[in-house]
Amino acid sequence: RGEGACTMRANKLWLIITFHTTTAAMAMEAMCAAKNLPGRLIPVPREITAGCGMSWRAPVESREKLVSAAAEAGIAVDGTYELML
Fold first, then answer.
1. pTM for this one?
2. Is pLDDT at 3 greater than 60 in this prediction?
3. In 3-state terms, what secondary structure has residue 28?
4. Is pLDDT of 23 > 90?
């Protein structure tokens, strides 16, 4: 690598799940860890507005499994989006 070179990452389509509260976002993190479900907490991308500023990023193909698991756990989801990040 030359001096000043930067690493470029190709954008990928991600599922973004938003929440009304930080408590719900943290509950999602704990539930996904316990059930070995994919994803991680990230700041809400600027293309989306959401109540608490935290969102869950996961592969788009995991949408149904994650939304269903959140509902079963009583975690209120604000919205689901697909974004290139």
1. 0.86
2. no
3. helix
4. yes
| Residue 48: strand, helix, or coil | coil
Alpha-carbon distance of 16 to 70, in angstroms, equals: 13
Q: Which two tokens stand for residue 40?
A: 């991680």
Beta strands in the chain (DSSP E): 13-18, 40-43, 54-59, 79-84
Contacts of 36 (CB under 8 A, 6+ apart): none
| Per-residue pLDDT reduced to its tens digit, 52-66 | 899 999 999 999 999
Strands 13-18 and 40-43: unpaired
Tokens of 75: 């975690």
Burial (Cβ within 10 Å: 0-12, 13-18, ≥19) of residue 68: exposed
Radius of gyration of the chain (CA): 14
